[in-house]
TrEMBL record:
Native species: Listeria booriae
Domain Peptidase M60: 54-355
Family matches, as Gene3D superfamilies: Peptidase M60, enhancin-like domain 2, Peptidase M60, enhancin-like domain 3
Highest taxon of the lineage: Bacteria
One Pfam family hit: Peptidase_M60
SMART domains reported in the protein's UniProt record: M60-like
The protein's name in its UniProt record: Peptidase M60 domain-containing protein
Length: 1132
């Protein structure tokens, strides 16, 4: 018997130690100190739930229905509210309670477990709530199991009390288990024991936090994790099969058996805790984003088995992939219209490409965005920010993929990716032939049929294709001669000059390539395509060039929403065509406004006369579209009974006024509450004395600053009381008066101003400032105004949607000196619409932003056309030479008249030179004034873009005529004229800009050449006469010794045909006599002639027989015969 009693005592002790967190004994007062947590303000702002407000602390008891618990909070230094909730297996049977510093009684109508919500500190206080409560003998001890507790003791306590609930507790979650699930918990199917359950969910939560980029030791508050616990329960009155909420996650049942199996549901529900503001938007990710976490856990936990047992990667993967491809490629739907399953595969494919680290980086950087004061989730669509942050972390550009699936990504983000030389990536659906996709997936060990790859990944496949590019542009000449450059990151894969509206690029390796921005010579364009996909043997790409208009930033769309955010109406400006389109859309904008006006749109002319008015009631509305002619000075008045439902370019208009008035200006709409024409700013002092005054006279571009009172405030003796300062558009101070409180010299100061200038008034008592007689509602000592064409704009009322501000916002997206050419073009075209003075100011302000675009245009064609004529006149204005350029056929026709150009000139009267792209001379002739050319010359040269033409004429002003015969434009002439041929015409260059060939670039243009080899006494001992027109080489060798002083090889001649066969070779020994030789050898394009001469510098001569010009000689030289002459390919 004693042994039995002893065992019972031990058992009771074990129950107390292992199964009971709060030691509660019947009919006694229990004291419990609760922990507190620091409120994660940054995580809250980021919209991250993370189970934060699930956290709660048990009292260690189960309370019977209707039983009262006396309780109070006894720490006098803790001032915050303490509240809790009775938890049952049905939220309809739950109830909440509050605890004060006085004894109070709490109860629930149903048997329940009381939990105290964890308090979150915001003031840095370390004080904690301390509870005292009286436990009665009717209450049961709550069985609690923590990791590594004694499971037997836990169930013994549960069984001995027949307790309604048990609690499984971890540092990451707590699970309140109904009695109904006790036996399942005791005999788990998918887990070894309760410790295994705890370990499993701890792993889930740990991985999810890691994927989300959260850690307890993070320096940034928006990345710092919090030691909170998820609360898991059963809830008979919940939603769906399972649900996740702000206070709990649960199974919709009076059982939570689903959480005691390793299933998809719990993984899915906990994943909801890691969502953000990006969930809504054009691409809704509800019930999708959380599955990235769930699938990632399954993949890590199951390993290779995930492809058989996994939910996303399992046996249904093939059918779901086919569904995605059907929506994408067959139905041609944007991703916003896809099923949740297809969206999941898309997001998982992107994540698989970048890895978990980049996914965590995305989450961290997105939360950083949310920490900004002006954060607006609508500005950051999910695929835009994925594109941005994945790119930053991996240097991959996902734009080809997101464009393919038609995901919303801003042009600015796309330009940013291209400017940073990120490597483009694409789905294998877009770069692998359909028939080979399955085998490629296996070969490359890709997980799905839509996997995303970079070009290096598929290079080993050896797949290649051709691409036909069609340039759809109104004026092809504006891009003719530009480079079509394809790149893979920093690597240039193809670089060709655009010569035709349709071009074919052959033999490109399969993959996706970035098309470098093609900047027009005269206009700025948006290109419809910036990437080319090589998928099949033959591929086609149409690139449409749309002229950028500045009106894109000037025009606005005012959306008028109604009940449940229905689109009630819309107003769109088309200021290029001086009109506004008013659309009345909804037939029932708001049912509660039946027979009542809900919103009104009215337009007034410059005389304030109404020219259009629509009063729209809440019901029975007739839709319609109404174009209204407007011009600067007109006003648009919108009256909406619910002004919070007004949107401007998609952004909520910050106003509580039911009436909104805009004025039409040359540069867009201006809100009337932000502008004013001439104003008077009164500056008062002590006892409201008139200390000073500022009056604008903007008609005459000036401001008058009057300093009036000699003693504005006696208490400010020798101290500055107020300051008036005016700054120009460069923020340079052009006027400043610091006024002390006493001994002031009055005076009037007129100051010239213009739009862009700022007026700064600093007053130590700002309540004494008046604007047009009205008190300025500000407590700031500094008031700042900006001068605009419409008057003064106070900075605290500035219209952030004004055209100038939109330009500034766009300019901030440019973070590089290269790229962003479309954005730069947009800024330039918008600035060009401003009045001249303001335009010049803005051009100067944004000069650094615009310069790369201007540089891209600089050096382009000066004279556009295919046909040009240069006529050289001499004595009595007789033409003695001319050049006719036919650039369409790449020909230059030279004509020279026989006779003297001008007998009065005894030296070079004119010169014509033609050089290739390296600076090699193709043709060069000085025309001596008093020397006759023996016969007429008619000669045609092949030319191409990159070649140079130089014309010198001693009497260029009157006797050199240069003309664009296509446009009849006269080209101004000077003594020396140098031009570069481009694909679109001629570009003026300086003489020093014409390159000089490096040794390996040397080419000679001609048809007849002589190679002469000299020996002792400068006697010629061998020669080669090249006649390229007749394709022959005449070889001559003199009998006798070349040079007796040389006992070995003195010179060699070797001639090879185009295939490398030696057709002649001879080694000339210095002291060995040769037999005379005369031989004619065949020569063709590609033949090689190699000469070695020991005394080449003095005794080897190579020259153009026609012109007499010398060719380069060295001890050993090899010349290659070309269709136009000789090319030096080796020398030493």
């Amino acid at each position: 018997m004693r042994k039995i009693i002893g065992m019972c005592v031990i058992l009771l002790i074990l129950v107390g130690v292992y199964s009971y967190k709060t030691d509660v004994r019947a009919e006694e007062v229990v004291t419990k100190e609760l922990y507190t947590l620091v409120k994660p303000v940054a995580l809250d702002k980021a919209g991250l739930s993370r189970g934060i407000y699930h956290d709660r602390q048990d009292l260690g008891i189960i309370m019977p229905a209707g039983e009262e618990l006396e309780i109070r909070q006894v720490n006098p230094n803790y001032k915050d509210t303490v509240s809790g909730r009775f938890i049952t297996a049905d939220s309809k049977e739950d109830s909440t309670f509050q605890i004060t510093s006085s004894w109070g009684k709490i109860k629930n109508n149903y048997t329940a477990v009381p939990f105290i919500y964890t308090s979150f500190r915001t003031d840095g206080s370390k004080e904690k709530p301390v509870l005292e409560y009286r436990v009665t003998n009717k209450m049961k001890k709550l069985p609690i199991y923590q990791a590594n507790n004694n499971e037997t003791a836990f169930f013994q306590l549960w069984d001995s009390q027949d307790a309604e609930y048990g609690l499984v507790l971890s540092d990451k979650f707590q699970m309140i288990v109904p009695k109904k699930d006790k036996e399942l918990l005791r005999k788990l199917k998918d887990f070894k024991n309760i410790d295994d359950v705890i370990s499993y969910y701890n792993q889930v939560i740990t991985l999810y936090c890691k994927l989300d980029g959260l850690s307890l030791d993070a320096k940034e508050d928006y990345n710092r994790d919090i030691a909170t616990k998820f609360f898991i329960r059963a809830n008979k009155s919940g939603g769906g099969y399972m649900y996740y909420g702000g206070e709990e996650t649960a199974e919709n049942n009076d059982s939570l058996a689903g959480w005691l199996y390793k299933g998809w549901g719990p993984l899915h529900e906990i994943g909801h805790a890691y969502q953000g503001p990006f969930m809504s938007g054009e691409v809704s990710l509800g019930e999708v984003w959380n599955n990235i976490y769930a699938a990632s856990f399954e993949e890590q936990y199951m390993g290779d088995d995930v492809f058989q047992k996994g939910t996303i990667y399992g046996t249904s993967l093939k059918s779901r992939t086919n569904e995605m491809i059907q929506s994408w490629k067959v139905a041609n739907l944007p991703i916003s219209k896809w099923s949740g399953s297809s969206k999941e595969q898309t997001l998982m494919a992107m994540k698989e490409k970048v890895g978990d680290e980049a996914f965590a980086y995305f989450n961290q950087q997105y939360r950083k965005l949310t920490s900004q004061a002006d954060f607006n989730a609508a500005d950051y669509p999910i695929f835009q920010v994925l594109n941005k942050f994945y790119g930053e972390k991996t240097n991959f550009d996902f734009t080809p993929f997101t464009d393919s699936i038609k995901a919303p990504v801003s042009n600015a983000q796309k330009e940013q990716n291209r400017s940073k030389d990120y490597r483009p990536v694409a789905s294998i659906v877009d770069v692998i032939p359909d028939s080979k996709r399955e085998s490629v997936k296996q070969q490359l060990k890709l997980k799905t049929d839509v996997a995303i790859v970079d070009n290096d990944q598929i290079a080993s496949l050896g797949l290649k294709g051709n691409v036909t590019v069609n340039f759809d542009i109104a004026d092809f000449k504006d891009i003719k001669g530009k480079h079509l450059k394809l790149s893979d990151g920093k690597k240039i894969v193809k670089d060709v000059i655009i010569t035709n509206p349709t071009m074919k690029l052959d033999n490109l390796p399969n993959g996706v390539y970035t098309i470098e921005d093609i900047v027009g010579n005269t206009s700025n364009y948006n290109m419809s395509e910036h990437y080319v996909f090589v998928k099949d043997a033959e591929n086609n790409l149409k690139v449409t060039f749309t002229k950028i208009t500045g009106y894109k930033l000037i025009d606005r769309t005012i959306d008028i929403l109604g009940c449940d955010y229905v689109q009630a109406g819309k107003l769109v400006t088309d200021l290029k065509n001086n009109k506004v389109i008013v659309d009345i859309i909804a037939e029932t904008p708001h049912p509660r406004y039946e027979n009542k006006v809900y919103y009104t749109i009215e337009i007034f002319n410059e005389k304030k006369e109404s020219v259009f008015k629509k009063e729209i009631q809440g019901t029975n509305v007739t839709p319609g579209s109404y174009p209204v002619a407007v011009k600067p000075g007109y006003q648009i008045k919108i009256v909406h009974d619910e002004p919070q439902l007004l949107r401007e370019n998609g952004v909520t208009i910050s106003t509580t006024n039911k009436t909104l008035v805009y004025t039409v200006t040359t540069t867009g709409l201006v809100k009337n509450d932000t502008i004013g024409l001439d104003r008077t700013i009164d500056i008062f002092g002590c006892d409201y004395v008139q200390a000073g005054k500022l009056v604008t006279d903007l008609k005459n571009n000036k401001v008058i600053v009057d300093i009036i009172a000699e003693t504005p405030h006696w208490r400010y003796a020798n101290k500055v009381y107020y300051t008036v300062e005016i700054l120009n558009e460069k923020q340079e101070s052009i006027f400043k008066k610091e006024i002390e409180g006493t001994n002031v010299t009055p005076g009037s100061n007129p100051v010239t101003v213009k739009p862009g200038y700022q007026i700064k008034i600093v007053h130590d008592e700002p309540q004494l400032l008046r604007e047009n007689g009205v008190n300025i509602p500000t407590s700031n000592k500094t008031v700042l105004y900006t001068v605009t064409e419409m008057g003064l704009v106070r900075s605290d009322l500035v219209d952030k949607s004004s055209t100038v501000d939109r330009i500034a916002k766009l300019a901030k997206t440019i973070d590089s000196n290269d790229g962003y050419y479309e954005t730069r073009g947009q800024i330039l075209e918008t600035i060009n619409l401003f009045p001249e003075a303001q335009k010049q100011d803005l051009l100067e302000q944004y000069q650094e932003i615009l310069q790369p675009l201007l540089d891209k245009k600089a050096g382009t064609t000066d004279f556009i056309g295919d046909d040009f004529q240069f006529s050289l006149l001499g004595l009595s204005n007789n033409k003695f030479a001319s050049i006719d350029l036919d650039l369409a056929n790449n020909k230059a026709k030279l004509w020279v008249r026989n006779g003297q150009p001008h007998v009065y000139f005894t030296n070079a009267y004119a010169t014509i030179q033609l050089k290739d792209e390296f600076g090699n001379v193709i043709y060069s002739q000085d025309y001596i004034g008093n020397i006759s050319d023996p016969a007429d010359v008619n000669k045609t040269f092949d030319v191409k873009p990159g070649y140079y033409i130089s014309v010198m004429h001693r009497e260029a002003d009157s006797r050199l005529q240069m003309k664009n015969t296509e446009s009849n434009e006269i080209i101004p002439s000077q003594t020396e004229n140098h031009f570069k041929i481009t694909a679109t015409g001629l570009q003026i260059v300086k003489k020093e800009d014409i390159p000089k060939p490096t040794e390996n670039q040397i080419k000679y243009y001609g048809q007849q050449y002589d190679f002469s080899l000299y020996g002792l006494g400068n006697n010629k001992f061998a020669s080669i006469g090249l006649d390229l027109a007749n394709k022959q080489a005449k070889l001559w060798v003199r009998s006798g010794q070349p040079h007796v002083y040389f006992q070995d090889s003195y010179a060699t001649i070797k001639i090879e045909d185009a295939t490398g066969n030696v057709i002649f070779t001879k080694d000339f020994l210095g002291n060995v006599a040769n037999t005379e030789l005369n031989k004619t050898l065949p020569i063709e394009s590609g033949s090689l002639i190699t000469i070695m001469h020991r005394e080449a510098a003095e005794r080897l001569a190579i020259q153009d027989v026609t012109t007499g010009s010398k060719l380069l000689v060295k001890q050993t030289v090899t010349y290659k015969v070309t269709s136009t002459g000789l090319h030096l390919i080796a020398s030493k």
